[in-house]
Fold this sequence. Notes:
13 helices, 3 domains, alpha/beta, Rossmann fold, 13% strand, globular, six-stranded parallel β-sheet
Amino acid sequence: MVSRNLKKILNWIDIIDHLRHKFYIDDYLKRPLKIWMYDKKILLHNLTYFSLQEINWMNISKEYQMYSPEYYLQDYFQCLNHSKNMNHHSIQWTMNPLLADYFIIPSDLMFFYFNRRPATLNDLQFKELLKKLNKFYFEILLTNVQTMFPYWTLASQADYIGANHVIAIPGGRNMGILYSKTQNILKNVIQLAFTGIRNDLLPSNASPQYVYRNISITYRHQYDVIIPQYTPLKWNRSRYDNLDILIKKKKRLFYFAGALYHSTSPLSARSLLSYLWKEIKEKQKFNITTQIQGRQFETIMIIDGHIETDEYIESIQSSIFSLCPEGFLPWSPRLYESIQLGTIPILLVDNIVLPFERFIDWRSFSVKINVSNIRNITYFLYRIDKFEKYVKEKLENALSYLHAFEWPYSINKHLFQLEENSNDRVENVFHYISLELRCRRLEQLYGFTVERLSIKSIEAQRLACTNHPNICPCHNEQRSLAFQEYI
C-alpha cells in the first residue's frame, strides 16, 4: 500500500513539474525577453589597478574602435532601464532581477586591453598585460558577481550555473585573452563575440586555424552569440535607391585594400592574396580587363597597405565585389563596410560563423570562396547567368539586412541615436541580438546546455525550433556558411 501511494505521489510530482514547465514556457512566449544588468560601480568597488581609468573609446586608436560594441551594449541596456522612449517590443529591462531571463555582466576588458596598445608590446610585456587583466580586473569582476549577488546560482541543476548570464567581450575569449581558470568560470555564460570559427569541423589532430601571439582562439558554436563589429562609416540607405544607376557606375569587378603580409600562416587568405597580387603585378595572372555581357570592367585591384578613407570608400563603391579575407583573427569590419557601401562581399575564410545566421540569409547577398581557391578568384564569374540581374538581386537582398549591422552610435559623440521606423520598431543590431538571446533562452528552457552535441541538447533544439519556428528557426547545418562555397 505504501509503495503504491509513493508511486502515485511521484507521478503527481512529475505531472506538476511538467505543468509548471509548460506554464513557464507559455508565459515566456507571450512577453519580451527580460534582462537585468549588474551595476558596474558596485562590482568594481574593490578594484585598485584599473579603478582610476576613464572608459572612453574615443581615446582608443581608430584601428581598434571596431571593438567598441563592448561599450555600446552596456550603454544600450542602461538606456532600456532609464528611457521611456526606447523600443521594448523584443527586449525589456526588468526592475525585479528575480524575473530576469538573463543577467548582463558589464565588462570593459577590451578597452583596458587596447588602451595598453598591445601591438607595441614585446612578448614579456604582453604576458604581463594578460596577467594584470585577468588577476586584477576580470577575476575580481567575476568573483563579485558570484559572491555579492544571489543570481549566479539561480539554476535548476549544477550544470546550468551561470547559464542565465550574458557577457559582452567581443574579442576576449576569442582572442585568448582570458586564462583557462577564468574561462572555466565562464563555462556556461553566453558570450557576445565577433565572427566565430567552427573548430569542431576540423580533424581532432589539426592545428588551430588562428593563433594570436601563441594563443589559440575559442568559440562555442550555437551557444555564444556572434555580433558584427562597429564601423564608423555612415549608413546611407539612399545608396540603394536606384540600383540600376549604382550598378552602371561600377567599373571594376574585384577590389581589396589592406595589409597583405600580417599573417603568420602561408595558407591564410591574406598570404594567398599576396601571392595573387605578385602574379598580377608580373602579369602572370588575369587580363587587365574583363568583358561580361557587353560591359567592360577592370578585372581586379589589390592594394597592399592602408589608403585614405575617401579613396577607400570610392574604390569599394566603384567595384562589383569586395574581397573580405580575415585579419589577424577571423574577423574584419571590411565585410560590413562592403555591405554599407553597396558592393557584394566575397568571404575569403573557411569554417566561418557570421552574425545572426538563424535570422539572416547571408547567401542571398554575399559570396563565399574557400581560401584554397583564392588564386582562381575570377573563375566563378563563368557560372553566373545574366550577370547584371545577378548583381542587382544581391544588392536588393542586402538592402533587407542593412539595419542588422547598424550600431546606432557615433564614435565621436559616443551617444545612442534613437531611431524608429513607421511601425514603432527599431530593427538595428540590438533587435537581432535580442532575437538570438530570446531563441537561446527558449532552447535552454527545453534543456539546451553548453554541451550542445549531447542527446539532451540536440533534442532541446529540435523541440524549440519545431514547436516555435517563429522564435527559433530550425538551423540547417547543411546551409551553414562554414561548410561550402556559394555564389
